[in-house]
Amino acid sequence: MSIQDVPLRELPFRELPRPLGTAARADDRDADGLSVWPRSTRPEPHGDVSVGGVSLAEAADRFGTPVYVLDEQEVRERCRAYRTALPEADIVYAAKAFLSRAMAHWVQEEGLGLDVCSAGELALAVTTGFPPEKIVLHGNAKSPEDLHAALRLGVGRIVVDSTSEIARLAAITPAGSRQKVLVRVVPGIAAGGHVKVRTGTDDQKFGLSITDGSAQHAVTRILDQPHLELVGLHCHIGSQIASVKPYVAAVRRMVGLMARIRDQHGIALPQLDIGGGHAIAYRPGEESLSIGVLAGRVRAELEDGCARAGLPVPRLTLEPGRAIVGPAGVAVYRVLAVKRTGEHTFVAVDGGMSDNPRPALYGVRYAPRLIGRASGAPPRLVTVVGRHCEAGDVLADEVALPGDVHPGDLLAVPAAGAYHLSMASGYNLVGRPPVVAVADGIARVLVRRESLDDMNRRDVGL
Q1: Distances in whole angstroms, Cα of residue 29 to Cα of each of 37, 46, 196, 443
Q2: N or C: which end of the chain has fewer CB within 10 A?
Q3: pLDDT of residue 280
């Protein structure tokens, strides 16, 4: 048995999960500040915290820091919650949030499909035995390698994002076959937690607009291609959306477009993909999207709209990513320095924007917690910063930590499962952290730490 697989501590593991997507402030663990942590999280003696029965302080000592700890059972329960809320729909996990072979295996076992954006993500998925017919390929600028890989491996659906892509895809589809495609439509709806993640309006790079007629034109072009089979429409209106109203509005507009396609071309499209973007809480008190409410409202709007238009109800597809893996992850850092400059206190850790660029990109705010020791010191507002050579390398601004925080301490950041490692970079050649899965008191490495030797091997010339 390897050191990664030994039990770290025998603890009661799970309790019944809270309803997925309920507001964080309604959680009974707010008093402990754990409402945005994985449900298996437990406060332990001496200020420690365990996740999945694994001590985070022991995990930090064993695997080093920074380290991502991922609660396998939390991931699985969130997959099941989607399947329960929408049993008649296709739930397709958005791999861009976080992908590893283990993650692909988990979502496959829980009955989900997979949404990929590149030949690389696709290749990793199929090496796990993931059924290619349950994979959807996205991308606003798919490379020739992306399209060839999708056709060679037999992905179930390709989402067409531009008219130029139609001709390229049709030209390489093998004779005697038909590739199923969806058209990505811009429904003209602004939604999302930051301007940089609002993808449902005409002023961004994704999709084909209803307003200027380019979506309708793409439909006509695809129907003229004998090697392409148009099976439905797709839209993605943004990310970190906490309200169901934008999704209901998007469904209404997409049904209207499906009715116009029926009137113009005499076909009723059998599928409607409304994307993902479901919000999670990053700090106690923040709202997350209620999946149960979303399911009920979207289902009602789809059925009512199709009845009014005289359309058969299409099969629905959703693409959650962050909402499945985000709350399952915790990032653990070690404090390297504490600096007081004027009225500001900076707590510098051994990671930063190379393993979490999201605060710099989107202004995301986190709630770090001191772990591994108890402290009776009064809290002090500090700014947690990274080790990189950028003034914007800030992980958490103006957060309360014990006033005696010092070098060597451990800080844990919850809601760290999505868009951390997947967006990590090689800045300053620090190396990307490992991902450690925890379940039933067992910890195992899913993705090993990137070493200096890994980085040196890529540098092949003088």
Answers
A1: 9, 19, 32, 24
A2: C
A3: 95
Q: If you write DSSP's letter for every residue of 363-429 in order, what string do you get?
A: ------EEESS---SPEEEEEEE-SSS-TT-EEEEEEEEETT--TT-EEEEES-SSSSGGG---GGG
Token digits of residue 118:
């590149």
Q: Phi then psi for 319, rounded to 5 degrees?
A: -125, 65
Backbone angles phi, psi at 315, to 5 degrees: -75, 130
Indicate the length of the chain as a whole number: 462
How far, in Å, CA of 178 to CA of 156, rounded?
A: 11
For the record, the structure tokens of 269 come out as 């499209």
What secondary structure letter does DSSP report for 172? H
Catalytically active residues, by annotation: 389
349 contact partners, CB below 8 Å, separation of at least 6: 66, 333, 334, 335, 336, 384, 385, 386, 387, 395, 411
In 3-state terms, what secondary structure has residue 108? helix
Select from 421, 362, 426, 369 the least CA-distant residue to 400. Answer: 369
pTM of the predicted protein model: 0.90
Q: What angle do CA 136, 139, 145 make, to 5 degrees?
A: 85
Which pLDDT does position 22 carry in this prediction?
42
Q: What pLDDT score does 195 carry?
A: 55
Task: List, in order, residues 6 or more apart from 203 with CB less than 8 Å away.
Answer: none
**What pLDDT was estimated at residue 261?**
97
pLDDT value, residue 127: 92
Q: Measure Cα distances from 166 to 169, 172, 199 in Å.
A: 5, 10, 21
The pLDDT mean for the chain works out to 90
CA–CA gap between residue 105 and residue 128 (Å, rounded): 7
User: In a 10 Å sphere around its CB, with 0-12 CB exposed, 13-18 middle and 19+ buried, how is residue 149 labelled?
Assistant: buried
Amino acid symbol at 346: F
Given a cut of 50, the residues of the chain with pLDDT beneath it are 1-19, 21-27, 194, 196-198, 200
Which token pair is 437?
A: 């899965």
C-alpha torsion angle, residues 297, 27, 362, 348 (rounded to 10): -170
Which pLDDT score is estimated for 114?
98
> Which residues lie closer than 8 Å to 216 by C-beta, 6 or more apart?
210, 257, 260, 261, 264
226: phi > 0 → left, psi -120 to 50 → alpha, else beta; which? alpha
Classify the phi-psi angles of 104: left when phi > 0, otherwise alpha if psi is within -120 to 50, otherwise beta: alpha
CB hemisphere CA count around 417 (13 angstroms): 30
**Rg of the chain, C-alpha, whole Å:** 23
Alpha-carbon distance of 180 to 96, in angstroms, equals 22
Please give the pLDDT value at position 10.
29
